[in-house]
Amino acid sequence: MLEVISIPTFNDNYVWLIKNTENNHCCIVDPGQADPVLQVIEQQNLILDAILITHHHFDHVDGISDIISACINPVQIYSSIALDVDAPVTLVTEKTQLNLLDNSLILTVMATPGHKREHVVYYNQTMLFSGDTLFSGGCGRILDGSATELFSSLQRIKALDENTLVYPAHEYTQANLMFCYAVEPQNNALKQHIEHTAKLRQRGLPTVPNSLKNEKEINVFLRTNTATVSMAMEHKLLEIITSELAVFTALRAWKDHF
């Protein structure tokens, strides 16, 4: 049986730890800090098998070296680009399949450029580790990628099984939902989710993971095909918008200054 544990780091990051409860082997996604991860590993008497990296930003990779140094067993690192660490790195690309935790966890790599050109996500039929490509209620900023790339990446994610649970790398949900509400104030599913996430945060709990099904109901960046979102952007820009990509590009530009 697998268990997914959120490990808060920095102000709003999550390192995701996936644990095989039968033998206590585990893997982690995007360790920007070492100490919080090592504390969980020690407290739960875990054996770290692998580290998965979605992209090369400090808050996703800076904990790797110290974690590797603290482990007495070999730890495999997976990344789409080379990393400056004292350990072997296995490069992954589109459709690479990873057999982890004694084959109890099988993940496929999807290339998702947009936030960063090297960005990848890891997924199967039940879970998606989305890094900074897809957040609950939002998506990543466009840095060295393009709006076209990020839109395409999100459309591919949107096509996954709707029961997939989305595990993003940041706790940005409440701020993202406020933007979604500015775009779609009549969205009842969104209103309900705003209330739900507020209660979670009041209790000090993460707002993620969330189902892809629900994200498609509340996240405007996955709703560029809906009349309400496109009309909202036409009203904002005072011009007719003729494509989903144009809706998405306008949304991302608005969110950048929201």
Automatic annotation (TrEMBL):
A Pfam family that the UniProt record links to this protein: HAGH_C
Enzyme class name: hydrolase
Binding site for Zn(2+) 2: 59-60, 132, 170
Metallo-beta-lactamase domain mapped to chain residues: 12-170
Keywords per UniProt: Hydrolase, Metal-binding, Zinc
Cofactor list: Zn(2+)
GO biological process, one term: methylglyoxal catabolic process to D-lactate via S-lactoyl-glutathione
Record carries keyword Metal-binding: yes
SUPFAM superfamilies, sorted: Metallo-hydrolase/oxidoreductase (SSF56281)
GO molecular function, one term: metal ion binding
Residues engaged in binding Zn(2+) 1: 55, 57, 115, 132
Catalytic activity line of the entry: an S-(2-hydroxyacyl)glutathione + H2O = a 2-hydroxy carboxylate + glutathione + H(+)
Domain of life: Bacteria
Pathway connected to this protein: Secondary metabolite metabolism; methylglyoxal degradation; (R)-lactate from methylglyoxal: step 2/2
EC number: 3.1.2.6
Co-factor binding details: Binds 2 Zn(2+) ions per subunit.
InterPro entries with a match to the protein in the record: Clx_II_MBL, Glyoxalase_II_hydrolase, HAGH_C, Hydroxyacylglutathione_Hdrlase, Metallo-B-lactamas, RibonucZ/Hydroxyglut_hydro
Bilayer-crossing regions: none
The protein's assembly and partners: Monomer.
Annotated function: Thiolesterase that catalyzes the hydrolysis of S-D-lactoyl-glutathione to form glutathione and D-lactic acid.
Entry's family note: Belongs to the metallo-beta-lactamase superfamily. Glyoxalase II family.
Identification of the protein by name: Hydroxyacylglutathione hydrolase
